[in-house]
Amino acid sequence: MAGNKILQTIKSPWPANNVQHRNEPVATDTIKAQVPAVNDGSTMAQLFIGQKLLVADAYGVKTDAEFVNILEDNIQLRGAMDKLISDGAEAELSDRAKDLLRALCINDWHSEAHHLHQNSAEHHWRHIKKNVEWLMNLCNCPLEVWLVALNTFAAS
């Protein structure tokens, strides 16, 4: 609702002011699975890991084009990050993703090609993957429940 004076405005006309902020950089990476997930048939997962609090979120995705929608979901859930750290995948470099980052004043940083150590999401994924495999082997789960197991460890 907006009046004819700026002091009568309830919602800021600048989108970055209307979003809660997380005040930490967030690393992201796409994980590919061997089989579709039992939940929704996702063949990949998008992982977001905060660099200070190490809060991790995993979302099932079917195509790379869903990245911007998943990023919006993560911003809505946790707040806008200060910086998005990624490996420079095409979906993360798309015009739509850049427009969203620009509108919310989020910096982006991309690691160099073939330098996996530069993206800290790769490092944290190694530990999460080990725990997911341990849980699935312990419970003798079928491979299709990988996304459920991943969400168990990403949320903790």
Topology:
Layout: E1 26-32, E2 44-50, E3 56-61, H1 67-78, E4 83-86, H2 95-103, E5 107-110, H3 120-139, H4 146-155
Parallel strand pairs: 1-4, 4-5
Antiparallel strand pairs: 1-2, 2-3
Helix pairs in contact: 3-4
Structure overview:
The structure is a single chain. The model has no long low-confidence stretch (mean pLDDT 86). The protein has a five-stranded mixed β-sheet with strand order 3-2-1-4-5, sandwiched between helices. It has one domain (19-155): Nucleotidyltransferase, domain 5. It contains four helices and five strands, in the order E-E-E-H-E-H-E-H-H. The protein is elongated, with a radius of gyration of 18 Å. With 156 residues, it is an alpha/beta fold. The chain has helices spanning 67-78, 95-103, 120-139, 146-155; strands at 26-32, 44-50, 56-61, 83-86, 107-110. The chain starts with 25 loop residues before the first strand and ends with a helix.
What would you say about this model in short?
The protein has 156 residues and is of the alpha/beta class. 33% of the residues lie in helices and 18% in strands.
Please describe the structure with a list of short key phrases separated by commas or semicolons:
alpha/beta, single chain
Which fold does the CATH topology refer to? Nucleotidyltransferase, domain 5
Shape: elongated
Largest sheet: 5 strands, mixed
Helix content: 25-40%
| SSE string, helices as H and strands as E | EEEHEHEHH
Strand tally, please? 5
Task: List unreliable stretches of 5+ residues.
Answer: none
Percent of residues in β-strands: 15-25%
How many domains? The number is 1
Number of helices: 4
State the separation between the terminal residues, measured CA to CA.
39 Å
